[in-house]
Amino acid sequence: MTVKSNKGVILKANPKGTPEVDKDFELAHRTIDIENLNLEENDFVLKNLYLSIDPYVRITLQEPTSSSLKYDKKIPIGQVIKGLGVSEVVKTNNPKFKVGDLVFGAIGWEEYSYIKSDIAYAFSFVNKELLKDTPLSYHVSFLRFGGLTSYASLIDIGKPKEGETIYVSTAAGLTGQLVGQIAKIKGMRVVGSTGSDEKVDFLLNELKFDAAFNYKKVDLDKALSEHCPNGIDIYYDNVGGKALEVALEHCNRLARVVVCGMISQYNITNPDERYGIKNLNNIVANSINIQGFMVTDYIGKDIEKEFEKDIIEWIKNGKIIYKETVIDGVENIPKAFVDMLNGKNVGKYVVKIAD
Amino acid sequence: MTVKSNKGVILKANPKGTPEVDKDFELAHRTIDIENLNLEENDFVLKNLYLSIDPYVRITLQEPTSSSLKYDKKIPIGQVIKGLGVSEVVKTNNPKFKVGDLVFGAIGWEEYSYIKSDIAYAFSFVNKELLKDTPLSYHVSFLRFGGLTSYASLIDIGKPKEGETIYVSTAAGLTGQLVGQIAKIKGMRVVGSTGSDEKVDFLLNELKFDAAFNYKKVDLDKALSEHCPNGIDIYYDNVGGKALEVALEHCNRLARVVVCGMISQYNITNPDERYGIKNLNNIVANSINIQGFMVTDYIGKDIEKEFEKDIIEWIKNGKIIYKETVIDGVENIPKAFVDMLNGKNVGKYVVKIAD
């Protein structure tokens, strides 16, 4: 009996606003017969082990429109959703990938993924050196795009300087917690905002931020006046919209705004309903730099190697704490994803699909 | 008889919206007795020769508020308005400045300015080397902040690359015309927008832009699709607001937005009435850099010397055309200023106050 379960999560409907588990997603009980599967040239089959739960996936669930959110292809209704994962090669017709190899790349929200030759180039091997010191779950995001996102953007765009102040929004997410900790290593005053008192505790007591607050309980403008008395030199923005507008009022001359994401705007389907930012005049008045980036801008650059070197050293000597929550089972991916979008996670959500 | 006329333009009222010559400005018929004037230590007196007419002055006419437009001090009602000018030292108690010296700095909209020692540091000498090849009027802006603004921001922030496309708004103003011409020298496709058919002609036929259009007569979105078929790599923004929002939709990956000014927003006194930009998500989607600057960021840097070297060479060998309109008489400053804000100028407005 070579037929195996290959449950997968398919897109049932384009979410309106915040996705809903039952309305927008469906678990398809499919099977796969690996032994009798005929692979075309250079194709291979992956057994998926860990999946990273990332905000950018929300954008791929939109109805395709003339929208400017072009940085990922949209998932058609009825098809398996995609995300970044770590997998084991279980069958291969591609000389580069051998059975047993551990690889990283864009897989489906499913137990097994059939990878066609034309996207094989987008898979790379799990770094065996790093694997000695770190669990496999770290390789799905933290040691890949997740960690590199924080490191490269903070160093390259933020240009952290000792004694300056950084304000990080959604500071308890993977990106935020790493940005804050790296900024501490660089000698900055680190201020974070997050959505629950539990997370504020985590930022202050575990990550040792200089200040942190629950944005749901304060007036942001007043909180920034209180916690950033010398103004903001780097605003690390994961939120966009009104939060960006308020932060711009606190930015010092020559401040850098690193725009990692605009999570406040992702669930807004109608572009006219997005928040309109009225104080970009501050950019001129204070010579402010606002820069967006995608982590792929940094792939293959020197900074990727510097990241691997620094991050392993910082983990080993305890300078960086990395908090993740591992959730079991492909059937729990939609809930993990929606919870993450609703800010329920402390640290990084990773789904364990198989051992 | 040593008493001389010292007419000056004072601020009569804080303009609401676009300033009005008669409502907001008043010509004060004052006199000055230079011979019998007692100077305190390190003070000096200037006879003003040329005044530069610049948009930034509009901001200094606002009522002082908690507004974020902090980059210039507000002019109190009843006081002489300030601007950048070239002047001759006519009396001095400051060993650095001798009678007959030609200097550049912030003077009053008046015939003579009394300069106190505490702001003497902000005056510098007209470059005599450059004066051999250029009229004195060029030294009030073009060879100073005006030209340096275009050069430094385009090179430092815009990073022009051969074959790329630049779109310049208010392209017929001093900044725009220089930016466009330098971009041509750097091998770019140069597209400009401006507010009259006469100026479109000027951009196409005199400055040799690749494309130009009258923004009052077209739909900006369609015009950009037509004239920037390969998208925009540099948007040189003098306008802000809706124009910035539309341009962002045409920006390529890794585009640079140089924010020189937001003239569309300067006349809006109530911050709530400013235009709200809703598509900053493009910054993330396309790794776009939006950067503001002030020309003073570049003063004393290497790029200032490079500018002087390049600009003189370009003028001498005819690679750069500089168009200015010289208006006579201190009493005509308010009209020149209002006309400039209303876009009536082709090229740079300079007021000749005296020979």
Strand content of chain A: 25-35%
Which CATH class of the largest domain in chain A? Alpha Beta
Shape of chain A: globular
Architecture of the largest domain in chain A, according to CATH?
Answer: Alpha-Beta Complex
Instruction: Quickly count the helices of chain A.
Output: 12
* Element-level helix/strand string of chain A: EEHEEEHEEEEHHEHEHEHEHEHHEHEHE
CATH homologous superfamily classification of the largest domain in chain A: Medium-chain alcohol dehydrogenases, catalytic domain
For the record, the count of structural domains of chain A works out to 2
Arithmetic mean pLDDT of chain A: 92
The greatest interface between two protein chains, and residues involved on each side, is: A-B, 38 and 38 residues
Number of strands of chain A: 17
Taking all Cα atoms into account, the compactness measure Rg of chain A is: 21 Å
Low-confidence stretches of chain A: 67-72
In helices, the fraction of residues of chain A equals 25-40%
Q: How far apart, in Å, are the first and last alpha carbons of chain A?
A: 20 Å
Instruction: Outline the biggest β-sheet of chain A.
Output: 7 strands, mixed
Which structural class do you get from the secondary structure elements of chain A? Answer: alpha/beta
Q: What name does CATH use for the topology of the largest domain in chain A?
A: Quinone Oxidoreductase, Chain A, domain 1
What's the multimeric state? homodimer
